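Key result, reporting period 2: structure in, sequence out.
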């Protein structure tokens, strides 16, 4: 089975300024994902997409095989990510002249994952026959038990109802927080209809300590602390 890895990162960031190139224990944040992809030994090529020439240069230096210049309209604060992923995939196919069966997209801001998480998600895709696999960690709150949403009139209620009502968290169906770390797609399914959820999408479970997405300075500090502890273990 041929596999491609895509990694997409914008040059601009408002939550943590310059986070994709920010130094994290001696190397830029983006380098962690590239190195994890390389460590798996799964991929025929690693394609890095960005609107920033500096990030593209840093990605090639860190070990990416293909640099894809993302169109500016796909790099705004409001631009959805799926079109950028598709653009990266299509450009990588054009540059290599090969269409992989499966591709994996890694989020740059999730450097706590392990290479084994990537291989585990790919294995789940292979074994299940599903069109795609996402990753997530067990949710701290359950929509059946203690996660509420606010209605238009200001009142609140459980996000999801059950009959009979669920009174213990242990009785609720398992729920997960998507951690946006790893996405695995069959290329044919994705090109036909790019989506995160299909009728038979599967989830590869990751622990909470490997599921922090850098979206604030506090997130960055936590990621740095956990990575340092891992390296010292």
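The corresponding designed sequence is given below.
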């Amino acid at each position: 089975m041929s596999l491609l890895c895509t990694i997409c990162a914008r040059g601009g960031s408002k939550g943590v300024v310059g986070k994709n190139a920010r130094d994290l224990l001696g190397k830029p944040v983006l380098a962690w994902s590239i190195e994890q992809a390389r460590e798996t030994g799964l991929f025929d090529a690693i394609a890095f997409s960005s609107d920033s020439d500096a990030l593209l240069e840093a990605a090639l230096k860190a070990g990416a095989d293909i640099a894809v210049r993302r169109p500016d309209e796909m790099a705004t604060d409001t631009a959805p990510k799926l079109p950028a992923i598709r653009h990266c995939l299509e450009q990588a196919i054009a540059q290599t002249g090969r269409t992989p069966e499966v591709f994996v997209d890694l989020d740059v801001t999730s450097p706590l994952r392990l290479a084994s998480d990537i291989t585990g998600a790919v294995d789940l895709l292979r074994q299940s026959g599903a069109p795609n696999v996402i990753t997530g960690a067990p949710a701290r709150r359950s929509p059946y038990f203690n996660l509420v949403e606010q209605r238009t009139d200001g009142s609140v209620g459980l996000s999801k109802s059950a009959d009979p009502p669920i009174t213990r968290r242990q009785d609720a169906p398992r729920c997960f927080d998507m951690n946006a770390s790893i996405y695995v797609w069959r290329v044919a399914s994705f090109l036909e209809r790019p989506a995160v959820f299909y009728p038979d999408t599967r989830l590869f479970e990751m622990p909470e300590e490997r599921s922090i997405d850098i979206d604030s300075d506090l997130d960055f500090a936590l990621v740095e602390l956990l990575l340092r502890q891992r390296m010292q273990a």
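The CA atoms of residues 102 and 231 lie 31 Å apart. DSSP finds six helices and eleven strands in the chain. This case is discussed further under Risks and Mitigation.
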